Structure formats: C-alpha cells, structure tokens
Amino acid sequence: MNYIFFFLLLLPVKWVMKLLHKSSGKTLVIQTAKIGDFVNITPLLTHLQKCDALLSRSVAPLAENDDHIEHIWYIENYKTTLIEKFRLALQLMNRYDTVYLLHPNNANLFYAACCNASNKQFIANYRRKAYQSLFYATANGIVEHTTTQLTVESYLKLADRSFTKASYPKHATHPLWQQQPLPADLLREDGMKIGISISAGNQAKTIPPAVWKALFERLSDLPCLFYIFGAPNEQSRLDELLKLTGKRSNIINMIGQLPLQAVPQAIGAMDVYIASDSGNVYIADAMQVPVVLIYGPCCVEEQRPLGDVLLIGPDHIAPSSFVFDTPPAYRYSAEQLFGLDQRKLDDIYHFISARLPARLRHDD
C-alpha cells in the first residue's frame, strides 16, 4: 500500500512532466526476479532487439553480456530510502516510449505507472490486489496471466498478442560468453557428462541427498560423469551428499569454479542436465541440453523447460509453488515432493541412456 501513497505524491509531478515528454524511441523491460526468470524473458529481448531493463543484480553477469540490453537499472540500488525510490521514478518518468512490465510486484508497478510512455503493457496475474488498480489504470494494455499459461508466452504477448512460445528461442547470454580456457574437467570425453544442481535458490525446492544417491545407483551401469554446479555457498550441500554416497571418482565438483557468465558455456558442454526448478535448468534448456526436471511442488503448466525434457513429479500432489506465488515452505516433505520410486528411476535411466553420445557408443 505504501507505493500507492508514493505514486499519489508524485502524480502532480508526473502530469507536469508529461507535458514536457519528447519521443525517445526507447523501450524499458521490467523484470526483477532471478536467473530462471531472466532466461525466460530472453525471447522478448530478442524480439525487441534493443531495450533498457530494470533488473535484479543477481542476473547482472548474464544481463551485462546480452547485447540486446543497452542500459541496466538495478532495483537493489534504489531500495533503501524513499529518496532513492523517487530518484529512480523521476529518472524513468520521461525516458521511454514503451514500457513492458513482466514482474508486477508493488515496487515494479509503481515504477511502470510513473512512466509517461505512450505504450505501456503490463502483466496481471493471480496475485493482483484491488488497490493495484490505480497502477493498472495507467497501462495501455494488460496481458492476463494464469497458472495454466506459460510465462514465456505471456511475456511475449506483451509485445504482440499473436506470439507463442515458438516465436523466439531462449538464450542465456547473447552472444554466448565464452571463457578461455575452460576447466579441463569440462573437456573430458570419457563419460556421459551429466550436470546437476543439488540446490535451488528457494531452499524448499532442494532435492534431498538420499534421492540423489538412489539416482546415482540406478545410473551406475552407465558411464556417467556427474558435474555438480552451484554457487560457493552450496558447498555444504555437496559435503552432505558425499557423506551419504562416499567420495566417488565420477562426481566432479564445479561449485564456485565458474563466474555466472561462464555457466551457460559450461552447461552447454553437458550431455544431460538434472535438477529441480532452478536457474540452471533454464540455462540448460536455452543451451539445448536435454533436461530431467524433478519439479516437486512447482507448476509445470506455468513454467518449465521447453526443449528435450523429461518431467518427473510427485504422485497425487497438486502444485503449490507458482512463478508469482512461491511459499517459503510446503505442506509436504521434500521426500514426498522429490522422491523417486522405481518407475521414475527407470524413466530417468531410459531417458539418459537413449541420449548416450556417439563417442561412447560401442555398436557392432
């Protein structure tokens, strides 16, 4: 509600500034969520060719290596004081002709509403509140998004209502940022390279170590090399897993070994990627790497990898985690949400074995 009050305070300034507004031809995209969400807006960025963006600093290494984005505003730079919030609102106010609002929380609605752009297109979702109507009244168009619609498609429809998920591909960086040289482990050819995220940004989406152990055992007769990706603070998760599995020569620790901008290239070197709903899953999808998504409580109707993917979910448990409504905890245990019975283990085995790279096949 505070942002409604802030908007009313700035409304007289907005009206006066509108009289001074001159066309700039510039476009602003507003999406302040994390890595997976950033990857899912890249089809829109490709369509726009050039734009500015209001983003979270967590995606900076990807966004700063995307040549579709000309200028980036980081929301974290304007969160602390009211003066900072007003400063950003005033800087955005007359700068753009078009504004696309993809992540409609109160702060982003406030900034989008303050803009005097002649074309403002907003996403409205299932968390929309009655008091936000004042912000939505400033929009020229609204795309209604539900949990049964793909976010990537809703984002694209902001620009053109005829667009679908197939209109533009995803990317992680554009052009692909390449680290030279890559760590030697990533260049190995003696096994099937399987990337893994053992943790997720939302810790409630973390797959238990016992589930990974069961999966490793089911895949034991395949020549698998398991590459564990993650930020430095995820090392404890790997330590916990290794206590259960014991040290294994085919588990390769990539945690903290790469800057985020190099992760797409590294994941692109994988033959398959396995994870829960995490940013790296969407990077793998953008890199056209086959994905096993163990989705737990997440709603795959709303957001999922769109390429070569095997979806593994819980039995008889309705989704409770959505793109715009993610609880910090869930009714069911992680074992119930992410557990793999024999059928699911077999499905994963057959998916992976069918994608055994040619270099490892020994056909007669």
From TrEMBL:
Biological process according to GO: lipopolysaccharide core region biosynthetic process
Gene3D superfamilies for this protein: Glycogen Phosphorylase B (3.40.50.2000)
Protein name: Glycosyltransferase
Keywords: Glycosyltransferase, Transferase
Highest rank taxon of the organism: Bacteria
Pfam assignment, any one: Glyco_transf_9
GO cellular component terms, A-Z: cytosol
GO molecular function, one term: ADP-heptose-lipopolysaccharide heptosyltransferase activity
